[in-house]
Structure formats: C-alpha cells, structure tokens
Amino acid sequence: MLMSAVAGLRHALAWALLAIVAMGGMLWLRSPVNKLVSGVAILVAGGLLFTFMPDSWHERMASIRTYEQDSSAMGRINAWETAINISPTAGRRAPGSGLYPFLDLRHLCA
C-alpha cells in the first residue's frame, strides 16, 4: 500500500495526493497505536517525500487551486454531484433505475 501511494504521488496525480491524505488521516485516527509517535512519523515521512519530489510535481499539485479550469476535474465533480443527488431517491431499487426513462428496456425482457 505504501509503494502504491508513493507511485501515485510520483506520477504527479493531484487526486492521488488528496486521496492519500484522506485515507491516511482516517487510518491514523482509527489506529490503536500511540497517536503522538505515529503522527510525528507521518509528518517526518511526508516532509521527506515533499522535499524529494521534482519541481514539476510541485507545479502539478499547485494546480489543485485552479480545478475549475480543468474540464476533467469538473466532469468528475459533476458526476459525484449527480450520484449524491440520485442516492437518496433510489430507495431499495437500483440508483440508476428511472433516471433515463427513454432508455427503459424492461419491455424487451418480458
């Protein structure tokens, strides 16, 4: 898991940085070990990784601030918003059922 995190960071994936921070934070909060010792170890390891990353990586991570200009990021955000809006109305049926009534193909299965 650690090597996957390093590989994701090394390839300048901005989403990987956010995912690793979120996942690492949750794992750290839920871990039974001493929070102070593990927190210091995480900060030291993160600082070392940060200093050894190339300048292109730092430029790519700075682009997180301007995500509104990235069409790929906005497409993912729109998909997440759609999924969030669909989920409460789905109930026990599949979340996508009834979303696109013109694609209703149930009559073909009868």
Secondary-structure topology with pairs:
Layout: H1 2-10, H2 14-30, H3 35-52, H4 55-62, H5 71-90, H6 106-109
Would you mind describing this structure in some detail?
The chain is an all-alpha fold. The protein has six helices and no strands. The protein is extended, with a radius of gyration of 20 Å. The mean pLDDT is 75.
**Main beta sheet:** none
- Beta percentage is under 5%
Helix vs. strand class: mainly alpha
Number of helices: 6
Computed over alpha carbons, the radius of gyration is 20 Å
- N-C termini distance: 47 Å
Shape: extended
Number of strands: 0
Order of helices and strands: HHHHHH
Low-confidence stretches: none
Q: Roughly what percent helix?
A: 55-70%
The multimeric state of the shown protein is single chain
Mean pLDDT: 75
